[in-house]
UniProtKB/TrEMBL annotation:
This is Potassium-transporting ATPase KdpC subunit. The system is composed of three essential subunits: KdpA, KdpB and KdpC. The keyword Membrane applies. It is a single-pass membrane protein. The keyword Transferase does not apply. The gene is kdpC. GO terms for cellular component: plasma membrane. It is found in: Cell membrane.
């Protein structure tokens, strides 16, 4: 009797094991993979092309455009990506800066970075330090977030309009066109997709030959 009971329990256990293996080990991973492929043009995400049809990046990955020192700056900027050294609060173009840092709320290094970023951004945009939004001086968790707040975009409008010659009203229209609303109407906050916005302003791939900004 005990042997028969044991065999029945063993049979039930094996059936449960096989079912869970099929669902958790095969069906679930396959479903997640299939859903992840919906609406994408490739594994890297949604490619972003310029007016010449050249790929300049992805709508999902934030890459901050840089201009040579002293030259007019016609583009919108993303959030800072952090730093790989205690001596540089910005580190533009350094992929290692996208990695998480160990600087917490009580870090003196982070506090110094925040004040330095606030001063640099305020000077660049011609606004007071108090008008620089929080997201402009703090990095996103991923380090490559393509979005900024509408408030950060707003303080950049005057500079971009002046350099491109498009006029502030037109630049505000472009910002509005590339502003995403809250998910499902109530999740998150409004956000501006900077890579898409900069392409609309005339950003091109380095190997492409394009017309003048706003042309």
């Amino acid at each position: 009797m005990h042997v028969m009971t044991f065999l029945r329990q063993l049979r039930v256990g094996m059936v449960v094991l096989l079912l869970l293996t099929a669902v958790v080990g095969v069906a679930y991973p396959a479903a997640v993979w299939a859903i992840s492929r919906l609406g994408t043009s490739g594994a890297e995400g949604s490619s972003l092309t310029d007016a010449n049809g050249c790929v300049v990046g992805s709508r999902l990955i934030g890459v901050d455009p840089q201009v040579p020192r002293g030259e007019p700056d016609p583009f919108f900027h993303l959030r800072v990506v952090g730093s790989v050294a205690d001596s540089d609060a910005f580190t533009p173009g350094d992929p290692a800066a996208a990695l998480p840092s160990n600087q917490g709320p009580s870090s003196e290094v982070l506090a110094r970075f925040v004040e330095e970023r606030r001063a640099v951004i305020a000077a660049r945009e011609g606004v007071s330090a108090q008008d620089v939004p929080v997201d402009a001086i703090t990095g996103p968790g991923s380090g490559v977030d393509p979005h900024i707040s509408p408030a950060y975009a707003a303080i950049q409008v005057s500079r971009v309009a002046r350099v491109t010659g498009l006029g502030e009203e037109r630049v505000r229209e472009l910002v509005a066109e590339h502003t995403d609303g809250r998910q499902l109407g109530f999740l998150g906050t409004e956000r501006v997709n900077v890579p898409e916005l900069n392409v609309a302003l005339g950003l091109t791939a380095p190997s492409c030959t394009g017309g003048p900004i706003g042309g």
